[in-house]
Fold:
Amino acid sequence: MNLPRLSRVGDYFAGHSGTRSLMDDLGAVQRNPGAYLNLGGGNPARVPAMHTWFSRRLATLANAGALDDAFAAYEDPQGPLFFRQAVAGFLARHHGWPVDASHVLCTAGSQASFFMLFNLLGGPTGDGLPREIVFPQCPEYIGYGGLGLGADMMRAVAARPVETAPHRFRYQMDFTAIRTDARTAALCLSRPCNPTGNVCRDEDLARLAAMADAAEVPLIVDCAYGEPFPGISFVAHSLPWSSRLIACFSLSKLGLPGLRVGVIVAAPELIGVLTNMNTSMVLAPNPLGCHLAAPLFETDELTHFIAREIRPFYAAKARFALACCDRELSGLDYLIHDAEGAIFLWLWLRGLPITAQELYARLKASGVLIIPGHHFAPGQKAAPAHLEQCIRLSFAQPEDTVSRGIAILAEEVRRAFAKR
Structure:
């Protein structure tokens, strides 16, 4: 059967997607174990203590027959009440947020959370006014780019690279270029940033919050890697509550990526509308992850795991990957973004004589997967030029995979320069 005539939305999804390319690579890794050194996809590591805890918790629930309702009945479309109460209680006790279960929504993963938020807030309003989701930092998360169903629904502001040490740099927001107006629907950023690992400083977040307040729009903070949980952050930062804050979380980086559980915390009025949308899309979220994770929040055991297991585990992996890069790339003109959080290194190969996409293709042919930098410019008609010299590397894989992958990467980069 030939492809039927598509709607404008259908035409949009028929086009190229960086997110699809990333997930296709993850699928290839799953189908062909050992064929690739995966430094590309965003799969978290199996933190041993978390994996053991979840395995035991699943066995306990199964042996007690406690999963019967989870398997055999639809849940509340807002998510299981016991889990929402547990998350709200955790945020109230440890971070002073004045929230309860009515502020919390469970979704089918973070990607679903942002699909709902972007299309609920962005695009034409009832009176025809086009509205934009504004990203105040670029590079920004690859997955945002394919989520807006309307044309020109997103706008990004390029951040300024500033060198911080030999072979190190970080991005700083360009507040002179960040603007809000009648078209602004919301400000949105990932913190720590995927792909760079940049953690927006508290004072910069306060400036963004003030801008959102002045424009009477929400500030969406993607907390998939940072505070208040899962705490994969290596510099101190906080996230104060405000009535305009929309905080988005995930159980993936705690160790449950396959169960697809996202969490949105926001004003109850917005949660009510999102619940309507959630119901239309999936009827009710998958409750299994909620059953597994609820005690972490109820007993505050999560704070122990973050401080003693999750953060030190990933910090050690970041240090190892940085050491591998500095060793293998010695003599080349490279910069690595300061590793402030998340599970990635952002590598800028200055003067690279081929595009990042061509480097990706050559590395894939050699059995190494990375993500080329130009995909990380959602909301920009053309990626900033230097992103063609940038790649994202995941350090969440075993050390042998990381070290061998970076060695092959360096060899391919040297070959590209030699043939220039």
User: Anything to note?
Assistant: The first strand starts at residue 37 and ends at 38. Residues 131 and 183 are 4 Å apart (CA to CA). Residues 301-328 form the longest helix (28 residues).
